Amino acid sequence: MAKNGQTAGKAADCARCAPQPDTKKVEQPHKRALINRMRRIEGQMGGVLNMIEDDRYCVDILTQVSAIKAALDGVAIQILSSHARGCVRKAVLEDGGDEVMDELLGIVRKLIR
């Protein structure tokens, strides 16, 4: 078994990354953790709103905005990783994965802008 139970996680990624026909709905393997992270980010955003309303110092607000961006990037990386280990791996094994690889590269381009 790989470090931190990665072997079991990879199997789960593939099993859950099986979209139903004609839908793009996929259950995230670490859904609860992702929801918790997004709720924390939501709280940070509320904090920034309060800082703006309270006329806080610009640099303090920008520091919090930077933290929010980093937290969102972390969520994106986690979802991208699950997608690559699940959906993309499955598509490559089944049919070469040309379409899903193009889709993956497109989203990576968007993420690095």
Automatic annotation (TrEMBL):
Transmembrane segments: none annotated. InterPro entries: Metal_Tscrpt_repr (IPR003735), Metal_Tscrpt_repr_sf (IPR038390). Pfam families: Trns_repr_metal. It comes from the Bacteria. One of its GO terms (molecular function) is metal ion binding. GO terms for biological process: negative regulation of DNA-templated transcription. Belongs to the FrmR/RcnR family. This is Metal-sensitive transcriptional regulator. It comes from Komagataeibacter rhaeticus.
